[in-house]
Amino acid sequence: MKTFKLGGVHPEENKISAGKAIEVLPLPAKVCIPVSQSLGAPSKVVVEKGAMVKTGQIIAKGESFISSNVHSSVAGKVTKIDDVIDTSGYKRQAVFIDVEGDEWEEGIDRSPEIIYDIVSDRDTIIRKINEMGVVGLGGATFPSHVKLMVPDGKKAEYLLINGVECEPYLTSDHRLMLERGEEMVIGVKILMKALGVGKAFIGIEKNKQDAIVHLNVICSKHPGVEVVPLKVKYPQGGEKQLIKAVLNREVPSGKLPIEVGCVVNNVGTALAVYEAVQKNKPLIDRVVTVTGKSVAKPSNLLVRIGTPVSALVEFAGGLPEDAGKVISGGPMMGKALTSMDVPVVKGTSGILIMQGAESKRAAALNCIRCGRCITACPMGLEPVLLAQLSENQLFERAEKERIMDCIECGSCHFTCPAGRPLLDYLRLGKNKTGILIRNRGKK
Amino acid sequence: MNLLTVSGSPHVHTHQSVKSIMYGVVIALIPAIFVSLYFFGIDAARVIFISVAACLFFEWVIQKYLIKGPVTINDGSALVTGVLLAFNVPSNLPWWILVIGALVSIGIGKMSFGGLGKNPFNPALVGRVFLLISFPVQMTSWPLPKGLFGTGLTDAITGPTTLGVLKEGLSAGKTVQEIMASPDFPGYINDLMGAQGGSLGEISAIALLLGAVYMLSRKIITWHIPTAYIGSAVIFSGILWLVDPSHYIDPAMHLLAGGMILGVFYMATDMVSSPMTARGQIVFGIGAGLLTIMIRVWGAYPEGVSFAILIMNAFTPLINNAFKPKRFGEVVKNG
After folding, report:
1. What's the pLDDT tens digit per position in A211-252?
2. Which domain does A70 fall in, by range?
3. Residue A220 forms contact with B (CB below 8 Å)
4. Do A86 and A130 lie in a common domain?
5. How many domains are contained in chain A?
6. B162 in Cβ contact with B255 (< 8 Å)
7. I want to staple A334 with a disulfide (CB 3.0 to 4.6 A). Which of A24, A206, A244, A327 is the partner?
8. Do A91 and A188 lie in a common domain?
9. What is the pTM of this model?
């Protein structure tokens, strides 16, 4: 069975909600939609306070190359435009809407009928993906249309679809593959057409055997799309690791996947592409897993963007007595929330509620130089050394030791028997080293 | 409602801790403890008890009254040092020499550098080598077990180790074959099972290997150092043996006699004083294997494991610098 070779760890999978079918979360009374929901420049708000908006109506426009449109996920009245702390922990501008009914923007096809024929040409596909605000739903939220515009001199050979879902607990991609597989694969064909590639691989870890079987059946009708079962290993969902696992190609340090002829997209993104291109539907909802060992009703929910996290938790049986930490995302890379009012955004794949006992970090002990962090690092770095260099502010050396290659997967901290917060130091070091590199460029 | 915790990712952690690693090593040493009790009786228990108690005591005193910091004698590392120090001395060693050994191991070998994780050398070996140089007579008068199924204690009879017999015989002009043919020579089976003179924990290769399998299966140690160490020792001693079998002992005897198995699996693999990368560990193992055989064959001492490991400990920082892990995306390989 294929996997990536270097490093990696195997945390407990805890896919509690894997058997739970996707349910539609009832419309919330209010939503709060941050206007920068993708990597790149913030988008510009194009509605005013007091305006009535329809579901799917554009409310913020991406104006630079790397930025993305944002649409209203509900129908109702804009009550204010103000800053909000989103899941990233930073303040961002957001549009607050009181929900009134659910009238959709015209032109959006809401019928359940699946449209198989891809009539749009390459330029139309890319334009639609851009207009509909589709971004990478794996977590990085990179605007999808940008990935499809291959730079001059580079050539895409393969499209890789990320159905790995290597984060413990999360099952939203798993359910999506099982329940929306047909549409998702059409999305893959659309992406292939836009990229002009003849071959796409869907990488799925073998703990999702039912999804592998299901998609194999679907793919047999779509020549050129192939399911690749992968051994369970974290962080296989990292795009460099996925490319290595599926094609045995190594993206050079500091370069993008296109360097080795690959473009990687998440399964959720492929579905969003299908909806954008075939159904004219902007990205206004997504599947979110709500889970945790003490959660009464672990669920996979189809949620409108901007819904407060508290509404999801309420639907799943409320915040458990012993809740100690609420995380947006999985336990390896997710962010601990500072408030239950933060809105679901395009990059929110799950809400994980941890028990009190497991929420607190153990006290860090002396490093015993066991080297387990080095063995675990999927990028072949020395986290112990990089953490030391960061602690001592030796960023020039940290750069030489390739701190910028760190993908922040957390395998080092996960595996450390002394419980040292290695990734905290590495994040700090990356940040400072990045500033150093940018300042050097200015001179 | 309780306040929620906010911290950086990752939010889950491995179950392995410093404590579980250290106590895992102690569990792995249990078979060898039983073998030492079988062959050396109550003396073995006495030595292990004194050594462990003294190591824990000195760590406690130093942390509480000299450093005035947190006391970490529960983490198991002083316990491991205590057992390993006991394993590296004869079973008839006077108690006060043992206590000095424990003080040197913990005080100089470990705490003077800043405690667990900071010591460049394996603390138990620092103590052992200090005792070997300071008390050469007491440290090399080995009680001899009376063969595999011998009965009773052998407190009166002392003699050299297997390697000692060989070294003495060779320097007296005998050939290896003549020495090994003598009725006093323990032979392969006795060396494997533990019926040989020697430090109390090193005598039984089989008990030590049992513990090693346990440590490998629980991922307390990795295969890199042991494989490289044994591999280089076997290849190097094998070449010498092939060239002149009458003057050089065969690789199997090198492995079974003396402290090779104890050193390879329990002391060379000490994570604090060995390199951190797989490549570095292999270099470390090869170096230790070569040095062990060189000291045994050409050195003044019959045994070279302790010195070899300590010398390689000194090279560890250099090895860590020179042998970096293979970086992802360093070499572009396509297809």
Report:
1. 999 999 999 999 999 999 999 999 999 999 999 999 999 999
2. 24-99
3. no
4. no
5. 4
6. no
7. A327
8. no
9. 0.91
